[in-house]
Amino acid sequence: MSDWQERITHETAPAIRAEHELRYRISAPLILAGGPWVDLGCGNGLAAAAALGDARPARAVLVDLDERAVARAAGELGLPEASLLAGDLTDGRVLERIAGAVHALGDGAVVTCFEVVEHLSTFLPLLQWSVALAREHAATFVISVPNDAFWSIQNPHHLTAWSEGSFQELCGLLPAERTLMRQVALTGSALVGWDAAPASYEPTVEVGGDAAVATHFIAAFGPRHGEVWHGALAVQTDQLEQRRWERQRENNVVLAQAALEAEERTVIEQREQLRENTATFDEWRAYIHELERELGRPLSGSAEAMAAEAGAPAPPAGPSEPQA
Prior knowledge:
Rossmann fold, 7-stranded mixed sheet, disordered C terminus
């Protein structure tokens, strides 16, 4: 597992899993309303499966760049009849294939597209396709992008960077009728009985305000954009899994550092070997030239010597080579 994890797995930190799950939860009422569901960038399907609980849409299209991830998502979600598509969302031909699968299921689709746009070299083909599908086939879209100003460290997997300003520019290209939201992080704790029997709480959380920094920006557009649910999600942290995740991350960093140091040592050794080889070659060349002078032959590597080897007339003689 890499330090920058881009697909949710069972080992992902609970806070990150909850963050992804919440985005699917706000879309769940739309997904389960009876129309087709399209998940662009479905990943392994874990966050969507957790958000939907035991309910599932009757018709679905799962899309990801990785064909194996699409297959895993279908298994995790228990959707064997779903249409499974793999491809690059910057490719117009891929978008046409997705549109064909959506049209086959009927109008009024709900399309989720979470943490995908930042991985695209250009988002304009997807944006134009989305707006057209919303306008012509009554599709409702819910999309998200990360707030890179919050993370402050460049993610090597992201091909575009997002901030509040760039998100507002994106929104300027969306239909005027839309719902916009900020996703913010929560920190909390809970108390349980001494016997640690399961308990269920409904905590009151105050969010928003000037101190709130968005981790992600969310936009919904299409005929049902106003039905997107607002809310929060808190989950119990599995400390063992959390620590395992952190230690794995730390281990990967150590291994990467060791590999980098080994490469640097190899480069230094190769550079030193190149110097030694060059010095040896220079010594042999000087020795060969000395023998050639004694024998009255043209110095190897000179124009005269190369012409002789090619059987061509020797070039006009230049200034004579001083004898060693």
